[in-house]
Amino acid sequence: MSFTTFLKSVPAFRSLATREVERLSSQCEPVAYPQGQQIIRKGDPGDAMYVIRRGEVKVPIVDEHGREKLVIRLGAGEFFGEMALLTGEPRNADVFAETEVECLVIRRKPLQDFLHKHTGVASFLTEILGRRLLEGDGIRTVGKYRLVGELGRGGMAHVFEGLHPQLNMAVAIKMLSHELVYDEEFASRFREEAKIMAGLKHENIVEVIDSEEAYATFFIIMEKVVGTVLSRMIDTRGVIPFDETRRILSQLASALDHAHTHGIIHRDIKPANVIIEESGRVKLMDFGIAKTQKEAEQEDEDIVGTAEYMSPEQALGRKMDGRADIYSLGILAYEMLTGRLPFDSPDPYEILRRHVRDEVPSPKLLNQRVPDDLAELVRRACAKKPEDRFQRCADIVKFLQQDAPAAIDLSKARAKVFTVIYDPEREEQVTGLFRRALAEARKIRGARISISDMNRIY
């Protein structure tokens, strides 16, 4: 069996493309060990990872008095010494060949040089570290933070739940994928994200608490937000009720106005980067591709962002300012009002061309019930020329407040009660009735709606 075929059978390397595994196999040195030979000595420098190709090793685990308390045995397809590639720290256990053993040895120093040239190969380090951080007997810490579990993962980062040691407070810990660590430009951008977010203190922006560098990568420690991601809300509910849409847009505009005032352009406004807490408070997340106003004034050959929400000037790589975020916010508003995107195609370049060339249609064409003020918001926010849009996000907040329903004077308020007593067999029909009634009630500006469910009547 070739090194490439063997490595592809090992779970830690399965996520790598065949080409990347072939490159990694070029860094593997086959070494055979006779039965009983000590392969790793506790306290020795950590300089290599070992992948067992054939045979079995044993790892005695001892207590603080040096007494053996258990023995871990590893066989073909398993590996040991992997933390050497991430930290280079001294070995914390002995390893012996239980039988004749053949290992593929990946040495730390040449691998580091290799990964700077072939960054994609480094993703296996993220896979290994992710497992070690979550194992019951794993490392379980990042700097001073203790890990509790995993919250999610994507192509660029993994997010873990952690615990702040002094405040005993739950936090979210965002870990940059190793393949991006070796991309110096992206690693620099990740560090910059931590600085940018740490400087933005606003109730509608996820707060950055700290940052750490460990295990050959970078971590951003943020407040943990519990709620529903707006993209999931749209997928589940389709059209978002109009008053709720106004509340969400107003809070997002407020968050963006704060960022723009501090010279930061988000550049990736989309539902996946917005979370709604149970209280209704909105949080804007992920400043991973944000730029300072000074940086954004330079034309950019690399088009970075999400095609479906990108402003014409961003799609063309031209100079931009906060009005690019306003365009994206308008696209987001369109999606909330219709449940669909104005421009959609399997080809992202076709989407970008349409953002540059085609006017964003009125949301009323898909949903005639869209109020005039929200249709006008979309029209103005999504103007092709930045000078024809809202000029500041504060203008959007003011625009939405002009048409907001006045607070109800409870001393004069009226209430009506609608009670249905029914046979449980009619549950589906009654539920449908209440859904229709609720949908109609939500059209009444300023109305507050309450539904109670009494399972037993005495």
Supply the key terms.
six-stranded antiparallel beta sheet; four-stranded antiparallel beta sheet; 458 residues; Jelly Rolls; 16 helices; 4 domains; Transferase(Phosphotransferase), domain 1; single chain; elongated; alpha+beta; Phosphorylase Kinase, domain 1
Number of helices: 16
Strand order of the largest sheet: 9-10-11-12-14-13
CATH homologous superfamily placement of the largest domain: Transferase(Phosphotransferase) domain 1
Work out the strand percent: 15-25%
CATH topology of the largest domain: Transferase(Phosphotransferase), domain 1
Whole-Å distance between the termini?
75 Å
The parts where pLDDT drops under 50 for at least 5 residues are none
- Tally of strands: 19
Compute the number of structural domains: 4
Largest sheet: 6 strands, antiparallel
CATH level 1 name of the largest domain: Mainly Alpha
Inertia-based shape = elongated
Second rung of CATH, namely the architecture of the largest domain: Orthogonal Bundle
Task: Please give the share of residues in helix.
Answer: 25-40%
Mean pLDDT: 86
Q: What structural category do the secondary elements indicate?
A: alpha+beta
Compute the CA-based radius of gyration: 28 Å
